[in-house]
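Review form for a predicted model. The reviewer records the input and the model, then writes brief findings.
Reviewer: anonymous (R2)
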Amino acid sequence: MIHFYKYQGTGNDFVIIDNRNMQFPKQEALVKKMCDRRFGIGADGLILLENETGYDFKMQYYNADGNESTMCGNGGRCITAFARKLGIIEEKALFLAIDGPHHARVSPDNQVELQMSDVKSVEIGDGYYVLDTGSPHYVIFVEDLDDIDVVENGQAIRYSKRFREEGVNVNFVEKTTEGILVATYERGVENETLSCGTGVTAAALAYHLSGKIAQSGTVAIQSKGGKLQVRYEAVEDGGFRQIWLCGKGELVFEGDYGG
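Model under review:
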C-alpha cells in the first residue's frame, strides 16, 4: 500500500508522496496508472518529496505519462504546502528540483510564493515567443481565447517538426484590461490542463516583451483553474530574474493506493 496525498494548484492536480524513506518504486507503469483518471487516483502528475543534503527537501516530478519531467511550477507550490503540512518547514523553504534550487514562502492559508529559475533568453518570432521557465514553452497571443481549440491547436505546435521529439508546452494568451487570460496544452499530459505554473510564468514574461508592460512588475493571470500572479525583474540583456509565481497549493484528500 502506498500512502499518498492529492493536492491542487489552480486546478493543476498532483499525487504527492512522502518518499523520504525511498520506498516508492519509481516505475513508469505505476506512475502512469496512479495518475490515470479512470483506473487510478487521477492527476496531471506525480511528485515525490525526498531528502536532499543542504536543502529542506528534494522535488522529483513525473508527468501523467509516467516519465520524469522538467520543472512544474504549480507542483512546486503544492509540494511547498505539503512540506509545511509534514512539519518539514514553517514559512520558508529551499528545495532542489530538476532545474536547480528554488526558494519558496508559504502562509498559514497555503498561499505560496515560489521563486522560479532565471530566464536568460527568449526567442521572439512572428507572433510567438519560445522560452524556458523550468520547462520549455511556446507562447502565442490570440484575440479571443474562447475561440481557440486548445487541444487541436496545441497538438499542431507540440507535434510539429521542430518540437516533435522533445515536445513543448503551448500557451494561448489573451490580453485584458486587468492582465492576461492563459490556456495551456501540456506535453506529457498531452491534453489541456486547467493551469500550468511554468506556463503562466512564460506567458507573463512574453506579455512584458509584447510591449504591454514597460517595466518590471506584477502580472495578474486568470487560468481556467483560478487566479495567479507572476512578479519579475527584466534585465538589460533581454532576460529576467527574481521571478516569483504566486498562488495557493491546497490539499484535496489523502489515502492509500494498492492498485
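Findings: The helical segments are 28-35, 73-86, 150-158, 197-209.
Further findings: The two ends are 8 Å apart (CA to CA).
Recommendation: see findings above.
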